[in-house]
Amino acid sequence: MSKRKYKISVIQLNLNDNAENNLKKCISWVRDAASQGAEVILLPELYSSHYFCQSEDVDNFALAEPLYSTSFIAFSELAKELGVVIIVPFFEKRMAGIYHNSAYIIDTDGTEAGLYRKMHIPDDPHFYEKFYFTPGDLGFQAIETKKGTVGTLICWDQWYPEAARITALKGAEVLFYPTAIGWHPKEKEQYGENQYGAWMNVMKGHAVANGVFVAAANRIGLEKYLEGTEGIQFWGASFIAGPQGEILAQASHDKEEILIAEVDLDLQENVRQNWPFFRDRRIDAFGDITKRAIDK
């Protein structure tokens, strides 16, 4: 059962390095977050490598790992040692030819509380994720941990209100979004402010519409590892929002940081009592939402 109050953290990092170094770095930062009182700690999407989806290259499949191997072993031991919940996004090799963009939810005793596989897979210039990732097949989940009931969605999932709604309806108190999103450098001046603003606004909207806390952990830094390209400038700006969309903690665009905020379930209940959006849903009229398009 969830505590009425607990502290959550998102960690914003530059992860433009190899797997061994990124693992050591993330372990160190998780320790720092726990020392500051964090009880549920979120890492950025695909923590163990640079953002390899900038190209379609079969050699990048070597970055994937089977379930319960390197990442799970390391963070399971760490979670048990520190007594915290850790959300660990990683590149999963399920079998030859089937790979997922996944996240472990590791409980305070080092056991797996849950596993989430990214449901929505993008395919945009230098975000060629459909080449690498099979869409998730575990659905949207609310995971019970010894600290609280949490939901994990991953990056592109953050644009879909249906994903947030179902996860909240299943009982998630916090929606965690491990993320790898940034600007194409040549587009930043013209489109950057609106792109970043839309990203913030849609997740704040999920918080309001569902009366939940929302936490997003992004990368920072220019990741330019392909010749002849400008790379991706990850915009950071990780944040934690409350159930009215209020910003509880906000990171910079360009610094490695730890954010911590308190989840207050009494506040959440009060917000839902005063803004009873769940009560007034017209579920009898929502059948068309499962259609790809509503043809005239």
Note the main attributes of this structure.
single chain; 296 residues; alpha/beta; 6-stranded mixed beta sheet; Carbon-nitrogen hydrolase; C-N_Hydrolase; Aliph_Amidase/BUP; N-carbamoylputrescine amidase activity; C-N_Hydrolase_sf
Detailed description of the structure:
The chain is an alpha/beta fold and 296 residues long. Helices cover 24% and strands 26% of the residues. It contains 5 helices and 15 strands. It has helices at residues 19-35, 70-82, 161-169, 188-210, 265-274, and strands at residues 5-12, 40-42, 85-95, 98-106, 112-117, 143-144, 149-152, 174-178, 182-183, 213-217, 220-223, 232-235, 239-241, 247-250, 257-264. The strands form 3 sheets. The chain has a 6-stranded mixed β-sheet with strand order 5-4-3-2-1-15. It has a 6-stranded mixed β-sheet with strand order 6-7-8-10-13-14, with helices on one face. Strands 9-12-11 form a 3-stranded antiparallel β-sheet. The radius of gyration is 18 Å and the shape is globular. The mean pLDDT is 97.
